[in-house]
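QUALITY CONTROL LOG
STEP: pairwise intake check
CHECKER ROLE: data steward
CRITERIA: each record must contain a sequence immediately followed by its structure tokens, with no blank fields

ENTRY 1 OF 2
RESULT FIELD BELOW
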Amino acid sequence: MFRLLGVLSLLMMLSVVPAHAHGAPTDPASRAFLCSPGQPTASSPPCRSAIAAGLPSREWDNIRLPNVRGQDAQRVPDGRLCSAGLARYGGLDLPSADWPATKLKSTDFTYRATIPHQGSFRFYVTRDGYTPNQPLRWADLDQFLNVPSPPLVNGSYEFKVQLPKNRAGRHLIYTVWQNTDTPDTYYSCTDVEIAKPAAQPAPAAAPPVKAAPPARTSSPAPSVKPSAQTSSVPRPVPLASSAEQPPSSATRFGMSAVVAALGGLAVLGGFLLWRKRIL
């Protein structure tokens, strides 16, 4: 009887203890997941260093703090964001450019829930100028997405994200999963390589506008004085005057003959007049 009461009491005590949710990003994968057994990246130098520092690699889904209630920056100190300030996960905070980075090929993110619970997700991305060689600080992050109570699909939460357009190159995605049916909040660091936006084709250059040739100022045609209308009646040829041109020898001979003839006529006339008087 007492044994039965003890078992019932134990069951009642277990029923009031909240079941802890577990989960972490798997696409793109968090540092903890990439360092878990079976992942080819677990042998990378940063993962080996983190495991040597005490990382419980089999508990990649258990970076959580209780009773945070949204006061993340007050509970998680700068430089320890990836471990959430938990000493056993401290190797995940190691500043290094050798952390395996996932090349983002789409805007689809997957967060595996090994023990699903209700809650909301907040996504952050590092600002321009971020370098993985420096400890991560809250001031390095910009929040770009908040998703309350997403549906569970095949054991995972799936998201369609839209990163800020001015991000390219090496960056880090910081994910916060705040449970609403447990007191726990989970934290994850994910190294990514963001492709540069495709260059937009330059607008086709308009064909150069050819300058219109300078208007030809037609030089005025030389004024041609209208020629006098030619009459069909032939003009008389003017005779040269004696004052202008001396008479030729033929003309002089003709004139002498005329004068001689006139003189002969005058003599003949005088002779006839004289004879008539005598008679």
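ENTRY 2 OF 2
RESULT FIELD BELOW
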Amino acid sequence: MNALTPRGWLLRLGALLLLALLCAVAALGLGAEWISPRRLLSGDPRVAFILLDLRLPRVLAGLFVGGALAACGAAFQALLRNPLASPFVLGVSGGGSLGAVLAIVLGLDAATAWLPLPIRPLFAFAGCLAALLLIYAVARQGGRLRPEILLLAGVVANAFFLSVMGFLQYVASPHQAQEILRWMMGGLFGITMGAALLTGAIVLAGTVVLTALGRDLNVLSLGEETAVQLGVPAARVRRRVFVVASLMTGAAVAVAGPVAFVGLFVPHAVRLTLGSDHRLVVPASFLAGGAVLVLADAAARVAASPGEMPVGLLTAALGAPLFLVLLARGRAGRIP
């Protein structure tokens, strides 16, 4: 693991931040209707509506959701010392998806007159919290969070959530079944500015906490015995990382559904490019994940224009082959 200087940290993150901003600006102009810089400065109210009311919340949500999934993927992989760990393997996203499906089947999407916030994201976030508590209770044995039990509990819980969602989709009406299918594909459609900013607040705070725990993640990735010898409180660090990353995952799933492969592929790509120091890997994954999801969403909008393709289809279609290429070349699958 190469020594990480403050200057090197800032230079690398500054370059990634610039890349994420450039991707966001490009995504604002892409869609069913191309908006050139000249039109942007024309003062046309229709252009302003498209940019500020439709695309800007979506682009911000893409930055925060993609960043959350990638940063949490990096943290989970270090926490469990497993290269296949991701936000969707541990069951938290499955609980959120089940919550959203329940809201759809119960017909609660339209029942928002008494509440200023959408019902479906609230149910999704509540489902993530319920899954978090369930998995944490199962994996906490002997007063500490056991990584091997955590992974197994997440996989089993995820399988159970998927089976319940399959049953609910089976008994739902045709319209509800179609809505469930659309949600399960993952997408950034219909996100309001309020939802994007609330998601951003949760995700940014969580990323700061995970970055601050980067040194401890470095030590944990070497094994618990090494962590204990170096004075790292392994049990406390595992608990904090799991809870914070799960809350970030819940916030992301609540607004965008289960967007595949961003949390698995991006952290590996970052490690191959920038090294395995999690003080850099976590924030770099956040910036890279945001850029990837924003670009993927823009590509999905253009590819299906004038309709709209769920971005989760595109991230899975591109992420899976790219990850297989890394595995085939022996350039992925090692933590750290």
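INTAKE CHECK: passed for both entries
DESCRIPTIVE NOTE, ENTRY 2: Strands lie at 140-141, 144-145.
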